[in-house]
Amino acid sequence: MSIVAIQCPKTGQQISTGIETDAASFKAAPFANHTVECWACGGRHSWSRRWATLVEVDDPAVKRAGVPIPGSSVHA
């Protein structure tokens, strides 16, 4: 499973957009003009696919950073 993530412009933390997808769907989807509430700074950030990355949930860096995983009540 992978999540679409962006970088918080205020804190530099990687944050989840709440979207789960696979690599092929990520490359094909437009992902334009979206916003996400940021757990890192409390703000709201606009984003598009240009600024997003696909992150594996099992990636140790994601777990160390405490990136909230969609559908989970606990941080990774």
Which descriptor suits the 3D outline? globular
Number of strands: 5
Order of secondary-structure elements: EEHEEEH
Can you give the mean pLDDT? Answer: 81
Proportion of helical residues: 10-25%
As a percent range, the share of strand residues is 25-35%
Rg over CA atoms, rounded to whole Å, is: 12 Å
Major beta sheet, specifics?
3 strands, antiparallel
Major beta sheet, strand line-up: 2-1-5
DSSP helix count? 2
Uncertain segments of ≥5 residues (pLDDT<50)?
none
In terms of structural class, how would the helical and strand content be classed?
alpha+beta
Number of structural units classed as domains: 1
End-to-end gap: 13 Å
Can you walk through the features of this model?
The structure is a single chain. Helix content is 16%, strand content 34%. It is globular. With 76 residues, it is an alpha+beta fold. The mean pLDDT is 81. It has one domain (2-65).
